[in-house]
Design a protein that fits this description.
With about 250 residues, the protein is an alpha/beta fold. It has one domain (about 20-250): Rossmann fold, CATH 3.40.50. The protein is about 30% helix and about 25% strand. The protein is built from seven helices and ten strands. It has helices spanning about 60-70, 95-105, 120-130, 135-150, 165-175, 195-210, 220-230, and strands at about 20-35, 35-45, 50-55, 75-80, 85, 105-110, 185, 215-220, 230-235, 245-250. A six-stranded parallel sheet has the order 6-7-8-3-9-10, with helices on both faces. A hairpin with a 2-residue loop joins strand 4 and strand 5 (about 85). Helix 3 crosses helix 4 and helix 3 (about 120-130) packs parallel to helix 5. The longest helix has 16 residues, at about 195-210.
Length: about 250
């Protein structure tokens, strides 16, 4: 297997305030579903406040890498560290460690409907802050602030499963935004959205980037890639923006 370089430091320097702070580090990371290898010997470092676009064919491992970043799957070989701490099956059994990771890393799934499980939008957005142990006053403040920011105040009493696709996407984002994470992972965020919601989401991603959040976005959409990418991570033999900062991983 071919190992790759870690962070493309020589290719870009977008963050002068905090240069070179490694937040997400994969070292020889391997993962398989049953006996089928999906991630093979991944070496990858993402610095704090980087905006990274993952690109590759369907089934190349992009979604699986996002799950690993969020602590939803664990390495069969190698290591993954978040802000210096090893994330694996053992450390994620510690409720305090797992809670802290999930506070700092938010994941917006490709299918928002599969991410939403509460009876109302209000409860959905409040779920994360309550899990953080915040007071009900603080929870209510966060829910109100997020709903106002995303323009979904009129949805608060609605059931998520009765919403449109675009509304569900906003509620899924709101449920993550209410925890104010450092890292936002998006899996094909524009899929199935109408033009108005797409434009809103592109603007929202720009605002997150401007705020210094770390963005990791898996997408096939070139307009989205152009908007947010500091650099690209290509999976397998994918060839895309070869003239832009990029690295290759997960090659056979």
């Amino acid at each position: 297997m071919t190992h790759t370089s870690h962070h493309p430091q020589a290719l870009h320097h977008p963050h002068d305030l905090h240069p070179g702070h490694p937040l997400i580090v994969f070292d020889d990371f391997c993962f398989a579903y049953e006996s089928r290898p999906v991630l093979s010997h991944i070496d990858l470092t993402i610095d704090a406040a980087d905006s990274v676009v993952l690109m590759g064919d369907n089934g190349s491992g992009k979604s699986t890498l996002l799950k690993a970043i969020c602590g939803l799957i664990y390495p069969l070989q190698g290591t993954y560290r978040f802000d210096g701490a090893v994330v694996d099956e053992k450390t994620m059994r510690d409720p305090l460690f797992a809670k802290r990771l999930h506070q700092r890393v938010g994941f917006i799934f490709q299918d928002s409907d599969s991410q939403l499980f509460c009876a109302s939008v209000d409860e959905e957005i409040a779920f994360g802050p309550r899990q953080m142990g915040l007071s009900e006053e603080e929870v209510e403040q966060r829910v109100s602030d997020v709903c106002r920011l995303l323009g979904i105040e009129d949805l608060r009493t609605r059931a998520p499963y009765n919403l449109s696709g675009g509304e569900q996407k906003k509620v899924a984002i709101a449920s993550v935004l209410s925890m104010n994470p450092d890292v936002y992972c998006f899996d094909e965020p524009l899929n199935g959205l109408d033009q108005k919601t797409r434009e809103w989401l592109l603007g929202f991603l720009r605002s997150l980037k401007k705020a210094g959040k770390t963005l990791i976005v898996a997408t096939h959409d070139q307009s989205l890639a152009d908007e947010v990418a500091d650099y690209f991570v290509y999976f397998g033999d994918y060839h895309g923006y070869e003239d832009r900062p990029h690295i290759h991983i997960n090659r056979s």
